[in-house]
Design a protein that fits this description.
The complex is a heterodimer of chains A (about 350) and B (about 350).
Chain A lengths: L1 H5 L4 E12 L2 E13 L4 E5 L6 H8 L8 E9 L2 E2 L5 H10 L1 E4 L13 H12 L4 H14 L5 H4 L9 H13 L5 E5 L7 H18 L2 E5 L3 H7 L2 E6 L2 E7 H6 L4 H8 L39 H5 L5 E3 L2 E3 L15 H5 L1
Parallel strand pairs in A: 3-8, 3-9, 6-7, 7-8
Antiparallel strand pairs in A: 1-2, 1-4, 4-5, 9-10, 10-12, 11-12
Chain B lengths: L8 E11 L4 H7 L5 E12 L4 E5 L6 H9 L6 E6 L2 E2 L6 H9 L1 E4 L13 H11 L6 H14 L16 H13 L5 E5 L7 H18 L2 E6 L2 H7 L2 E6 L2 E7 H6 L4 H8 L39 H5 L5 E3 L2 E3 L2 H4 L15
Parallel strand pairs in B: 3-8, 3-9, 6-7, 7-8
Antiparallel strand pairs in B: 1-2, 1-4, 4-5, 9-10, 10-12, 11-12
Helix pairs in contact in B: 4-5, 4-6, 5-6, 6-7
The chains are: A alpha/beta (about 350), B alpha/beta (about 350).
């Protein structure tokens, strides 16, 4: 973070809160989430399904689906507040300054238009180019994302591409206007491992060459480990731990991150049993008081049951856990009550 | 291998082709040929009692088709499947066949689609017990279902609920309880954890290992996740376009991989140990199984392919306790090297 202290962060998310009003009350899906992304940095956001990672990404690109809404907090892109912009204003920023890549490449492309037409449309929306210039740029982009025979492939339709090739087209679409930030939501989840490696390598190369920052949302710790500079671990709508990727992977400070890392089967050692975190992430309607992780935590104390921890310095990372507070976790909880 | 004697499950020359041609009239009018997908194209597997045999491969390689063939959800196009010495395609009386079927069960990938949403969990788990007539009465049935639920770490009171009231991991536990209901000896698990989050995946894998030990189960485990396969298997078979390219004991496969495709797959495992190893992205994608490449089906993506690989289909060759189907290995063109993985500290 030392490098980012001089120049302003590209993206600032401050105390973001996303709510879903329902008939039975308001659900808090993202609760007080803050982080920065520096120019050219790759921030990984991991968490299990329902942790709020995709919602955070969608809020940044202004595509939160109603009835979900930003209830509090700010999102700033290069210092400019973007969370409260009118729809038309946000449309100009989306695509031009923030690109988006989604999980399923088939549903993010229009099956009725050739990929060339979709690329040219996006380019002309954001850049003042003529039709032929836009087409030349589209071919250039397709070549850049590694699609062989781009001049010919540009007239093909999405169904004529394989899954990996479609995801390359989606990346080309995200890059059309040379955005400063790309929000990639599970970009490799729908792909086979061998194709996944190709797409990750491509994303990394493009970010390096263009200096584009990436917010990489995924549940796959392996992808984060080799792609991200920093990682934010989300649990039940909050950031449980955030820090340099090496530190979080190797020396996790939050019990949830530790359990998460231990539950991934490793090729280094073959153990009889995997470390497991018992239980499951609470539903949004049933988030317990105190630390949201406390029902599954093995190091909890009395304080964790009542008081909610915020992010605090913990070694080289920051973790939301009372273990790292001078006050500690409080009085121990009797073993019998844990078992029950 | 446990038991050492006769193989518990033996699969020989198993083939399954799917006709995906256009309708007859369209073919005749437009002069189009028949099209056949060779989903499984001649594979041999032997599984010993008590072991976990895993099949890995990318989507479309035919691993799920093998699972479905083994439990009899598809009839094979050719080849034979023997279960504990009984030819599954042979002539059996209805009751003999039911007795055989009771001994094998399947766990599916998607716990959201594999449970009937209109049935209570009790009825879902009781169905195999009723179908095979295993219980002596209502009280016995209830006791059995309660025991099954406890076995998969659920509460017997959960039997009154419907599947939608459970999370993905809990639903997969219900699927496992249902599979165990008929007291099977052989379980075919088709990607049982790939729809689950990692922490839940660990719970389910641990449960499967515990159950295997307690009930002496034999598993055929289908997965595309190599780390999971490494963790759970005794032996592993690697599939590519409907064929087995390599079979080996787990440690041998991961420490001394032989087939170029196996090596490629191992290279694509994300590096969690942060050794700085770069994943080497392999060029190309899996070709269509409608027109598989001639000779060795991996030759278009293989850096070691020569003219023989393009023309001649390699045979499975015994090597280091397993088999490998590769001309380059057979001819000694491709040396076998040891691999090491960073230890998790």
């Amino acid at each position: 973070m030392a490098a980012a202290s001089n120049n302003q962060p590209l993206l600032e998310v401050r105390n973001l809160r996303i709510e879903f009003p329902t008939r039975r009350g308001t659900l808090l899906a993202v609760d007080d989430v803050s982080f920065d992304i520096a120019p050219g940095e790759v921030l990984g956001v991991v968490g299990e399904s329902g942790a709020g990672k995709s919602l955070t990404g969608n809020a940044i690109i202004g595509l939160l689906e109603p009835p979900g809404r930003i209830a509090a907090g700010e999102i700033r892109l290069e210092g400019r507040r973007i969370d409260n912009l009118p729809y038309e204003e946000m449309r100009k920023i989306r695509g031009a300054q923030i690109g988006a890549i989604f999980q399923d490449p088939l549903t993010s492309l229009n099956p009725l238009y050739s990929v060339g037409r979709q690329l040219v449309e996006t380019i002309q929306t954001h850049l003042p180019l003529s039709a032929s210039q836009a087409k030349a740029r589209a071919i250039e982009l397709l070549q850049e994302v590694g699609i062989p025979g781009a001049e010919m492939r540009i007239d093909h339709y999405p169904h004529q591409f394989s899954g990996g090739m479609r995801q390359r087209v989606v990346i080309a679409l995200a890059l059309c206007a040379g955005p400063r930030l790309i929000v990639a939501d599970e970009p490799t989840t729908a792909l086979d491992v061998s194709i996944q490696a190709q797409i990750i390598a491509l994303l990394k190369r493009l970010c390096r060459e263009h200096g584009t920052a990436v917010m990489l949302v995924t549940h796959d710790m392996g992808v984060i480990a080799e792609t991200a500079d920093r990682v934010a671990v989300m649990y039940a709508g909050r950031v449980a731990e955030i820090g340099p990727v090496r530190e979080v992977v190797k020396h996790a400070k939050h019990p949830y991150t530790k359990g998460l890392m231990g539950s991934i089967p490793s090729l280094g050692v073959r153990t009889e049993r995997l470390t497991q975190i018992d239980g499951a992430m609470p539903r949004l309607t049933e988030i317990p008081p105190g630390c949201a992780f406390n029902p599954r935590c093995t190091s909890k104390g009395q304080r964790c049951l009542v008081e909610r921890p915020n992010l605090m310095p913990a070694g080289a990372t920051r973790a939301a856990c009372w273990l790292h507070d001078s006050g500690g976790v409080g009085a121990p909880i009797l073993k019998e009550t844990i078992d029950a | 291998m446990p038991d050492g004697g006769a193989d518990f499950v033996r699969i020989e020359g198993l083939k399954r082709y799917f006709d995906v041609s256009a309708p007859w009239l369209v073919r005749k009018l437009e002069g189009r040929p028949r099209q056949v997908v060779q989903a499984v194209d001649g594979i041999d597997i032997e599984i010993a009692k008590g072991e976990t045999f895993s099949l890995v491969g990318e989507s479309g390689c035919g691993k799920s088709t093998v699972a479905r063939l083994v439990v009899g959800l598809y009839p094979p196009t050719a080849g034979r499947i023997e279960f504990d010495g009984n030819d599954m395609a042979g002539r059996h009386s209805r009751s003999d066949m039911a007795a055989l079927r009771r001994r094998m069960q399947m766990i599916f990938q998607d716990p959201f689609a594999s449970l009937n949403p209109r049935w209570r969990v009790f009825d879902i788990i009781a169905e195999p017990i009723r179908a095979f007539g295993l219980s002596t009465g209502k009280a016995d049935l209830e006791a059995r279902v309660a025991a099954l639920l406890r076995q998969v770490k659920l509460n017997p009171a959960d039997g009154r609920k419907y599947p939608h009231e459970f999370s993905g991991g809990q639903r997969q536990r219900i699927s496992i309880a249902r599979a165990l209901a008929s007291e099977p000896e052989f379980l075919v698990c088709d990607e049982p954890t790939s729809a689950l989050d990692v922490s839940v995946q660990a719970q389910i894998l641990n449960l499967m290992v515990d159950l295997q030990r307690r009930l002496q189960l034999t598993y055929l485990f289908i997965s595309h996740n190599l780390a999971v396969v490494y963790h759970i298997s005794t032996r592993v078979g690697v599939m590519y376009l409907g064929r087995l390219v390599e079979v080996a004991p787990t440690d041998t496969l991961f420490r001394r991989p032989k087939h170029p495709y196996t090596r490629m797959l191992l290279d694509t495992i994300p590096d969690l140990e942060m050794t700085g190893r770069q994943r080497s992205p392999v060029g190309g994608e899996v070709p269509s199984p409608i027109n598989p490449p001639s000779g060795c089906s991996f030759h278009p993506r293989c850096p070691f392919a020569n003219d023989r690989c393009k023309a001649e289909r390699p045979k499975a060759l015994p090597i280091e306790g397993g088999t490998v189907a590769c001309h380059a290995i057979e001819e000694g063109r491709l040396p076998v090297e040891d691999r090491t993985y960073a230890l998790n500290t």
